[in-house]
Amino acid sequence: MTHSNCHFSDAERRGLYRAIYERRDVRSQFLPDPIPPEILARLLNASHHAPSVGFMQPWDFIVIESREVRQSVLAMFEQENQKAAEQFEGERNERYRGLKLQGIMESPLNLCITCDRSRGGPHVLGRNSILETDLFSTCLAVQNLWLAARAEGIGVGWVSILDQTQLSTALNLPDHVYPVAYLCLGYVSEFLDQPELEAKGWRSRLPLKELVHSDSWGQPLTDSQLEAALSEPR
Length: 234
Hints:
234 residues; alpha+beta
C-alpha cells in the first residue's frame, strides 16, 4: 500500500532542493523592509519543528529590534573581529579585512537562537552518552529557519565572531542558557550565485566524492555508480 503523504511531488522536491542549494550567508544585501509578523511566525514555527534528541526542544528565540542592543553587539563584533584579523598575515590579512562579515545594523531584525542546557532535566532520553546533543539539536533549528527563510525570500546571516560570555550578558541569559546562533534577518536585493567567501576567493567548495568513505575512514567507494553520481554536477 502506498501512502500519499509519504511522497513529495516533483515540484515540491525541486523547491526543497532549491532552498538548500540557494541558501546563502547574507551580510551585504539587506533591504530595510520589515519582515511581516505572520512571516516571522512561520520562520520561527519551522525552526521549532526541528528534530531534537529526546524531543528535548532546547531552543529559545530572542527577537532583537532594539538599535541599542544591536549597537552593543556590533561593538562586541568589532572587538573580536580585530582579534581574528590578527591571526592572518600579508595578503590573507588584507583579504580578511576586506570581507564584510556581519549585517547587524543593516538588517531590519536580529535573532538569537539559544540552547537551554537544562531543558528536559538531568536525564534526557538519548543524551546520556553525548551531552552535546542539545547543542547539535539547536543547530538543526537554525538550519530549519535558514531554509524556510530562503523559501520566503528572506536572507539570513550568522554572526559567529562574538564573545559568547559578553553576548550572554548583553542579552541577560541565565547561566544554563547558551547563545548558539546570532542571526541577521531581512529581505535582500539578491541572493548571490555563489557563497560570498567562495566568490571572493577565501575558500572553494570541496569535491563531495573526496569526502565520502566506504565502511571505514579513508576507504574508497566500491560502488562505481555512486562514485560517478557524486561527480556529476548537481
